[in-house]
Amino acid sequence: MTPASSALRVAIIGAGPAGIYAGNILNRLVVEAGHTVAIDLFDSLPAPYGLIRYGVAPDHPRIKGIVKSLQEMLDAGTIRFIGNVTYGTDLNLADLREHYHAVIFATGAILDAPLVIPGIDLPGSFGAADFVSWYDGHPDVSLEWPLDATDVAVIGNGNVALDVARILAKHADDLLTTDIPASVYAGLAGSPVTDVHVFGRRGPSQVKFTPIELRELADIPDVDLVVYAEDFTPDSYSEQLVASNNQVKIMTRTLNGWLTKAPLGASRRLHLHFLHAPVEVYGDGRVEGIRFERTEHTGDGGVRATGQVVDYPVQAVYRAVGYRGSALTEVPFDAVRGVIPNDGGRVLDAAGDAIAGLYATGWIKRGPVGLIGHTKGDALETVTRLVADLPVLVSRATVDQGADMILALLTDRGVEYTTWAGWRALDVHEQLLGSQDLVTPGRERIKVISRAEQVAISRVEALSAL
Question: What is the pLDDT of residues 315-327, one digit of tens each?
């Protein structure tokens, strides 16, 4: 579908939930304001959905269900998806300024936040984001992952840490019903892992897990869940938190319940440790262990060091201490916070003044916090600012109103862009691969990993859909 020429043309960079929500809300609010709008949604990957496709664990189809809602938004035809286009390489800011009245950056936060301790860069130490990209079949990640450790440490007390630990501890055959590619299955099937340890700096009542993520740990086949009584020290603040927050109450009850359960003799174990602050990753040329200092509650929700040091012999360390945004060419960037500086979504220059026509939404705007509901509210805030700026934006007489000109530019530059129709073709292809799987019949899909293959399948429909 080719959008007609319109009074307002907007480019959105990033086709994850933040970008799609922004486009959907933008179309509604602009139409309500009495204008028409053409929206182009660009992504560096051939397929849409961002971290929903490449950041959610394969054994969590419930969360991936949000794809149905996002698909409906793009099926409506009010947003044009253009994939396999990298901002800063295939298109620059000057190109976007020439063809659009406004640009919304929704590139998210895909890098691992740093953990600054000695030895963190030793071979055998990994960022969780990279591992997640591997097991989710990201096209820009190697097909192979070094899974040669029997004992593994995961640092972090959020859902990503649990995802990483669960995938490491789980037997590969128990993932065959998911969409994992054959290379991921082969890697996990060859893992010699026996013990996965998850470490948090605070106590059991201060974890950042969600109850459903935590409780499902007890249901992993042939994996014993182990917690330690010395990590459950009395604390008045934690008691108040449990009494006032139902989610904390549920998780604390779950964790305390596991204290009384004896191991069943499973072939693998998943250990949850609390009140451990990482001090050093050590080893001679590669990871051989990790050192922690025990912490204790301060009574106000914080913790302090006790001076007690404990070592754990492990051969691999995964840091899951958060995500971080990355800088974009010609766009202001706050290197400390890892975000685009902004005021309610309006991008700010070094002097703190709004840059006309530039906006941000999602994690690149506010940092990697919040759930999908926050993403919707965040997009609404940004788009409301953009709509308020409409009189200034549409007054720009230099914007090229030709909807196909940007595609002609990409073609001239040799960019093999993909379209929404192309994604639907790839979507059908992946589902067909799943239904034809001889090992586990009836799988929903098997992901195509290769970027070249994704583009080839998508490009069959690319030009005919315009």
Answer: 999 999 999 999 9
